[in-house]
């Protein structure tokens, strides 16, 4: 029983270590042919997420908004927050990557305190 408990703790902590959160204003939103997903979003001061690639000129994590059934809603929320200069909270998972190898956004919250 102790071995099972220890293994479950080890596996759950390694899964949590792959998830990273950032809170801040959206510094930039990039769309274009060279983007693998719907868009790339840069969050101010989001400069470290373990193995997630960074845009070195600005020292910001490249957070990819993947094509999914939620991508239009996430994109709309990001545009609204950017246009109104509001902070957001995003979650990226370094085990989920787009075709460019950039870490994917798995959640975007407009209410950063929720």
UniProtKB/TrEMBL annotation:
<protein>
    <submittedName>
        <fullName>Uncharacterized protein</fullName>
    </submittedName>
</protein>
<feature type="signal peptide">
    <location>
        <begin position="1"/>
        <end position="17"/>
    </location>
</feature>
<keyword id="KW-0732">Signal</keyword>
